[in-house]
Specification:
7 strands, seven-stranded mixed sheet, alpha/beta
């Protein structure tokens, strides 16, 4: 079966934009804050890489980038490999909740990045992931995360949710459910995909929160592990970019 992965990519971007109207600004904040573009041949790890949107942007700018994308979903990794083509990339199917995934990468990466993925994990597993990231970074390396965050003041959150809903309603992209139903219907592979997941023992690891967690939790977690220069680097709507340095 031939799948046109470029046609997969554009609707994916539109769907993501519908859920996050500030997505492009968030992506720019992640890349610029990470310091990746200061290197001629950066070594980068992308957690929950999906179809490799960050990887494509980075390798377009820095073709010598050594980019490793981790995702639990084999379809996402297949899409990433097709969309990034003949670049210096590695696609690894890994469940971030596995305690040993980071052992072979000690002090290996200049930067670890993540876009709209880690909120799928529980707070406990986020903490374990942050510890693993600290291990795999080179000294002086950066860890930059872009994710939704939960406001602790309910009235402010209600106001921002109303603004977000109004803004999202003006965009033409499909919702998450509509995107996947359209993809599966077009290629008639939903049952095959489901069977493959069952055979591989893969389940979407959604144990966290659509809303993410308070930024106070994220900042304290990174500081407690040992990251320095921990800060909120960008924030808009109900999305943020935060991180620190090893």
């Amino acid at each position: 079966m031939h799948i046109d992965w470029e046609l997969f990519s554009s609707p994916w971007d539109e769907m993501q934009l519908k859920h996050n109207p500030f997505r492009q600004e968030q992506i720019e904040a992640i890349i610029n804050s990470s310091g990746i573009l200061k290197h001629e041949a950066p070594v980068v790890l992308d957690l929950g890489c999906g179809p490799g949107i960050l990887g494509k942007l980075i390798t377009n700018e820095k073709p010598l980038t050594q980019y490793t994308g981790i995702d639990g979903d084999p379809l996402m990794l297949t899409a990433m490999q097709h969309l990034l083509g003949r670049r210096h990339i590695h696609a690894l199917q890994i469940d971030l909740r596995s305690p040993d995934w980071s052992r072979s990468f000690n002090n290996h990466f200049d930067s670890v990045i993540s876009l709209t993925a880690l909120h799928w994990l529980s707070q406990e597993h986020q903490m374990e992931t942050y510890k693993a990231v600290y291990r795999v970074l080179k000294p002086g390396g950066t860890f930059i995360v872009g994710d939704p965050y939960k406001l602790e003041e309910s009235k402010e959150r209600e106001n921002l949710e109303a603004i977000h809903s109004e803004r999202a309603s003006m965009l033409t992209g499909k919702t998450w459910e509509e995107f996947w139903n359209n993809f599966f219907d077009k290629y008639l592979i939903k049952q095959a995909y489901t069977d493959y997941h069952k055979e591989m023992g893969y389940q979407i690891p959604f144990e966290g929160s659509d809303d993410g967690y308070p930024l106070s939790f994220q900042i304290k977690a990174l500081q407690d592990i040992g990251f320095t220069n921990v800060s909120i680097l960008w924030k808009a709507d109900l999305r943020a970019v935060y991180g620190g340095t090893k």
